[in-house]
Design goal:
Blueprint (H helix, E strand, L loop, with lengths): L2 E7 L6 H14 L5 E4 L14 E7 L2 H9 L1 H11 L4 E7 L8 H10 L4
Antiparallel strand pairs: 1-3, 1-4, 2-3
Pfam families: DUF1330
InterPro entries: Dimeric_a/b-barrel (IPR011008), DUF1330 (IPR010753)
Protein name: DUF1330 domain-containing protein
Length: 115
């Protein structure tokens, strides 16, 4: 199943270290089958608030996403971003092809107390 690294990054002033981070990040995730799915694009907020930017990197699976995050290559450049941009970053597994959410709804209904 695919997996994703999703970042919600707040606005930051331009800085040479951020530019270096962006220049170097692709080389850190490509060995793990990663690729940008969302980067440097505008988003449209439909509910709530979402200040800043969205970044999504896709991986073949959660093991590859974790291996990338923990890799010496990524950990070397991570401070270039984190010193200048606040944000939240998660790794999350995707759903299989043909995923049907009705099974989740059924399990949720079965867990409800009887009326």
């Amino acid at each position: 199943m695919p997996a994703y690294a999703i970042a919600h990054l707040r606005e930051a002033a331009p800085h040479p270290e951020i530019a270096e981070y962006i220049e170097r990040i692709t080389a850190t995730f490509e060995p793990y089958g990663g690729r940008f799915l969302v980067h440097a694009t505008q988003h449209e907020v439909k509910e709530g608030s979402w200040p800043g930017h969205v970044v999504v990197i896709g991986f073949p699976g959660i093991a590859e996403a974790r291996a990338w995050w923990d890799s010496p290559a990524y950990q070397e450049i991570a401070p270039l971003r984190s010193r200048h941009i606040e944000g939240d970053i998660i790794l999350v597994g995707g759903v299989p092809e043909g995923y049907d959410p009705t099974a989740t709804a059924k399990a949720m209904r079965e867990a409800l107390p009887a009326e």
